[in-house]
Specification:
The complex is a heterotrimer of chains A (332), B (265) and C (341).
Chain A: H1 7-27, H2 35-42, H3 49-83, H4 96-110, H5 120-138, E1 140-141, E2 144-145, H6 147-172, H7 178-185, H8 196-212, H9 214-221, H10 224-229, H11 234-256, H12 262-274, H13 278-302, H14 311-331
Antiparallel strand pairs in A: 1-2
Chain B: E1 3-12, E2 15-25, E3 30-34, H1 41-48, E4 56-61, E5 64-65, H2 71-77, E6 78-81, H3 93-98, H4 113-125, H5 141-154, E7 159-163, H6 171-184, E8 187-191, H7 195-201, E9 204-209, E10 212-218, H8 219-222, H9 225-232, E11 236-240, E12 246-250
Parallel strand pairs in B: 3-8, 3-9, 6-7, 7-8
Antiparallel strand pairs in B: 1-2, 1-4, 4-5, 9-10, 11-12
Helix pairs in contact in B: 4-5
Chain C: H1 2-16, E1 40-44, E2 47-51, E3 58-60, H2 67-74, E4 81-84, H3 96-101, H4 117-122, E5 127-129, H5 145-150, E6 154-156, H6 174-188, H7 191-212, E7 219-223, E8 234-238, H8 242-249, E9 253-254, E10 264-267, H9 269-273, E11 279-283, H10 290-300, H11 305-309, E12 312-315, H12 325-336
Parallel strand pairs in C: 3-4, 3-5, 5-6, 7-9, 7-11, 11-12
Antiparallel strand pairs in C: 1-2, 8-10
Helix pairs in contact in C: 6-7, 7-12
The chains are: A mainly alpha (332), B alpha/beta (265), C alpha/beta (341).
């Protein structure tokens, strides 16, 4: 008989784990800074300007961005999965990340005038939203979403948008070509403090808002008709949730590029361990997503020290087999 | 609680599905909705639990237009047990039943002791208390239907909608479920696939044929040999046996008055 | 995998043209006590950088290039280098490749060509030299020029490739190589040596120009085999770069000079076939057998005069921004006009 693990102690343990993993991630990197000195730097007692800059201006924003990106993409994944009642949904699989990339790259290469004066983040959101709407329109059959159609249209739209991104890059300027790599693989290596506030506000606000919405998400996953019978305005809920997941994806992609499979993997792992109730799932997914990304980033810069590997390689290496496994399970 | 469906018309993708359908269910009655596949039974249910707005006509519960209510208000009065339910198999029975409290809460509400009592009572009435911690996916078909029924009861509805509740259940589970529904005393509108079961559990029947009401009334009034032949294409007659149970006897041989009649367009 | 090609392409773009995240000009104040002859102030990419003494911990970024480190070696500044990411593994100047190989090596990002921002800071440089703005772009995980300044490190880029996207200044010429030598001469307090190198190069090139003057101007193709710069089959054909100046001085002209405004042309086999090519310059960029590449290329386009005459020359670092352009001018001139030597 599956008894659910108690929520509050689990959240406390995960919060501590997140804090610890962030501390380790700040303490370890491609360059050695002694732990004692790291502590002095964080508490404001250190003198060495080089190590101070490495820790305060490079590692801490990097670790924070990793945590926010992991949390944001994981929540977006959990929401999309509830939204379409399909465990294969994820911002990357559904092409929403690619849409955000197009929006961001458009502004970065052609200037904000082409996107109606939008900044990079807003353009990423607009791109994410547009991609999501197209994918959902294509994924419908007689007004109802079908899982296979949805995933297939996500993959198709994703490819088209990836091509658009590449085209924009090649077209714009030789120097911009290099950013193709960034948008394709995702990275937090260039994290800066000034990038954090927008992502932080979006992720925290969406996470809190969605936690209030947990009960309705539970109703939504039981299916369109069933949710209607439970008093949910399914169409309105879907549009709202689509906007929220696009906002999350756009905010993350604008600063960290298209990191794949996080939104797929984390909600599933959490569901396996803690069950499907979204009131429990969402806070847990937020923390686990943050921990996962902090650790993956840590791995990416320590596995081959002092060289660094792109973040997206690891999320794909872990995530793609997981996706295949899910696909098999779905077919079974 | 009295349900009145009045002159409901529905079109799906330009195709008319229901033509001026009217029916009534008196307080505490179990009304069965029968008819061949494609006769519009599930579509009619959808207009009642507010999944599909009728093009014209209205659906009233105790005189209130159900389509005038906010969706949550409606769901506190009308609950449905549906067929194509995608409830995740990983949810526990308690979690599924608790979903029934959804329309009773705003965004900031948490479950209180009152909710827990309602959930417990609903589980008790549906006979699923013992399944409490089980995963939904691990249950048998009959158990799942009873859990869904408990979920519906947790909505504290005044009208219960059932869409082929006995589908895929083995024979014992069918009777158990239907007896349970009968004993609830809640006004119920149920799509029934099998006439025997419908006859057994329902106070009255509405026979749909091609999106129109072909017959309605107490079971024996509705299931006349003529209706059975024209709507269902069988040679049969319904009668009450000495135990007071309505049985349908199917006979071999040519159909009375020439067989089933194609529904009017 | 396409991706590795993309990386290669990126690397070349970096060491060729390109630009960087814009830097807002801001005053730099010298904090250390000045050495004799110092402070020296260099204006680079519209910003003034002040040196209070010769840099002793130089870090060379941009592993796809070699011109900057080559210039430092030519100036005898090996001991000033703390870490070097640049290498071709070969050189047109005897001993140069070995000298570069002997320098302290920088750890570069896997799949990239530069040193991560943490690593570059931890090298505690006082001067970081790059090839394009790419090397100082935060988006790519590299330390920016203002950030390096904060820890007391000056930065230097070729002035023609330091701007933001789309702001590459004109087409590089041999003068840009001289400017680099002179900048390094001033920065490291070896201005006389730099001037000597420049003068020697000028004299050598003037001699060659005199020899080839008035002759025909054969059409020369500049190609880097094995490097993909774009999606077309021929994506690493030099269009507008320092080689145009080199060809000019060697008595030739770039066969592909006008096909695009960019630095490299991205052409199909058909477009290449219809262009008249009298001679080929094969650039050996980490290529195991450049002669085989040359033979393969000429065999594919037998209609070229270059193919009929078998006229090609393999060069590496001299045909790029760097201290040895005179070598390239002479080798190409000898190939194009052998009768004049």
């Amino acid at each position: 008989m599956p008894r659910r693990l108690p929520l509050v102690p689990c959240l406390a343990v995960l919060a501590v784990a997140l804090l610890l993993s962030m501390l380790v991630a700040v303490g370890v990197g491609s360059v050695d800074v002694p732990l004692g000195e790291t502590w002095d730097i964080v508490t404001g007692h250190a003198a060495d300007p080089v190590n101070t800059k490495i820790i305060l201006d490079y590692r801490i924003p990097r670790v924070l961005l990793a945590a926010l990106a992991g949390a944001g993409l994981s929540i977006a994944g959990a929401v999309l999965q509830a939204l379409v009642a399909n465990p294969l949904a994820d911002p990357y699989v559904l092409g929403i990340s690619s849409g955000a990339s197009v929006g961001a790259v458009l502004v970065m290469t052609m200037g904000s005038a082409v996107a109606g004066g939008l900044g990079v983040s807003s353009a990423a959101f607009a791109g994410a939203m547009a991609a999501a709407l197209i994918v959902f329109a294509l994924g419908q059959r007689r007004g109802r979403l079908t899982p296979t159609r949805l995933v297939l249209s996500g993959v198709a739209v994703g490819y088209v948008l990836l091509a658009v991104t590449s085209y924009l890059q090649l077209k714009a300027d030789a120097d911009e070509l290099r950013k193709v790599m960034f948008w394709m693989l995702g990275s937090v290596a260039g994290a800066r403090w000034e990038q954090l506030p927008t992502v932080a506000v979006v992720v925290v606000a969406c996470a809190l808002g969605l936690m209030l919405y947990g009960r309705r998400l539970n109703a939504l996953v039981t299916g369109e008709e069933s949710a209607t019978a439970l008093g949910l305005d399914v169409r309105r809920a879907r549009v709202g949730l689509l906007a929220v997941s696009s906002l999350l994806t756009g905010a993350v992609v604008a600063v960290a590029g298209g990191i794949g499979f996080v939104g797929l993997m984390v909600p599933h792992l959490v569901r396996l361990a803690f069950g499907a109730d979204h009131r429990r799932l969402l806070p847990l997914v937020t923390l686990v997503g943050a921990i996962y990304m902090v650790l993956v980033d840590l791995l990416s810069r320590t596995v081959d020290r002092p060289a660094e590997l792109p973040l997206g390689i690891f999320t794909a290496v872990f995530g793609a087999p997981f996706f295949a496994w899910l696909l098999r399970r779905e077919e079974a | 609680m009295r349900l009145r469906v009045d002159g409901v018309c529905v079109r799906l993708g330009g195709t008319p599905i229901l033509h001026e359908v009217s029916l009534a269910a008196e307080s505490g009655q179990v009304v069965g909705l029968v008819g061949p596949n494609g006769s519009g039974k599930s579509t009619l249910l959808r207009t009642v639990y507010r999944s599909l707005r009728p093009e014209s006509g209205d659906v009233r519960l105790d005189g209130h237009d159900v389509w005038a209510w906010p969706s949550r208000t409606a769901a506190r009065r009308i609950a449905a047990v549906l067929q194509d339910d995608a409830t995740p198999p990983t949810m526990t029975v308690a979690e599924v039943v608790e979903l029934g409290r959804t329309p009773h809460h705003g965004l900031f509400d948490r479950n209180g002791p009152g909710d827990r009592a309602v959930v417990r009572e609903a589980m008790k009435r549906a006979g699923v208390l013992a399944l409490d911690g089980r995963r939904f996916g691990s249950l048998s078909g009959g158990e799942r239907q009873r859990v869904q029924l408990a979920r519906a009861l947790a909505q504290e509805p005044r009208l219960l909608i059932l869409d082929e509740p006995t589908n895929h259940l083995d024979i014992r589970a069918r009777f158990e479920l239907l007896d349970l529904v009968r004993d609830l005393g809640t006004t119920t509108l149920a799509v029934m696939h099998e006439l025997d079961l419908a006859a057994r559990v329902c106070d009255s029947l509405v026979v749909l044929h091609g999106g129109r009401v072909a017959a309605a009334g107490p079971v024996l009034d509705a299931l006349t040999p003529k209706v059975l032949s024209r709507v269902f294409g069988v040679r049969a007659r319904a009668a009450r046996d000495p135990d007071g149970i309505i049985r349908i006897t199917y006979a071999a041989g040519p159909l009375a008055d020439g067989g089933p009649v194609a529904p009017r367009p | 995998m396409r991706f590795t090609h993309a990386l290669t392409a990126l690397a070349v773009l970096c060491f060729s043209a390109a630009a960087c995240g814009g830097q807002s000009p801001r005053p730099v104040s010298a904090t250390r006590a000045a050495a004799p002859g110092y402070p020296v102030t260099i204006t680079n990419c519209d910003q003034a950088y002040t040196f209070t003494g010769p840099p002793g911990r130089t870090v060379l970024m941009s592993g796809g290039a070699v011109g900057e480190v080559s210039a430092l070696v030519a100036l005898g500044l090996e001991s000033r280098i703390a870490a070097n990411a640049q290498s071709y593994g070969t050189s047109d100047v005897p001993g140069r490749a070995a000298a570069i190989d002997g320098l302290p090596k920088a750890k570069i990002l896997k799949g990239g060509w530069d040193i991560s921002r943490e690593s570059v800071l931890s090298l505690r440089p006082d001067l970081v030299i790059g090839t394009t703005g790419y090397d100082f772009d935060a988006q790519n995980g590299y330390a920016t020029r203002p950030e390096l300044l904060e820890i007391g490190a000056n930065t230097w880029l070729p002035d023609s490739t330091c701007g933001g996207p789309g702001t590459v200044r004109g087409t590089q010429t041999i003068e840009d190589s001289y400017d680099m030598l002179r900048d390094f001469g001033r920065i490291y307090g070896v201005a006389d040596r730099a001037e000597e190198l420049v003068e020697r190069s000028r004299r050598r090139i003037a001699e060659i120009e005199a020899k080839v003057r008035g002759g025909s101007r054969p059409k020369v193709m500049y190609i880097i085999p094995g490097m993909e710069m774009g999606t077309a089959e021929f994506s690493s054909i030099g269009a507008n770069g320092i080689w145009n100046d080199i060809f000019e001085k060697a008595g030739g002209a770039n066969a592909f000079g006008g096909v695009t405004d960019g630095i490299f042309a991205n052409l199909s086999k058909e477009q290449v076939a219809k262009t008249a090519v009298d001679a080929v310059v094969i650039i050996n960029w980490r290529n195991p057998d450049p002669d085989a590449e040359a033979r393969k290329l000429l065999a594919r386009f037998p209609q070229w005069r270059a193919a009929r005459d078998g006229r090609y020359v393999v060069l590496s670092d001299s045909a790029y921004l760097g201290p040895d352009n005179a070598v390239a001018v002479e080798r190409i001139a000898r190939m194009l006009h052998p009768e004049r030597f």
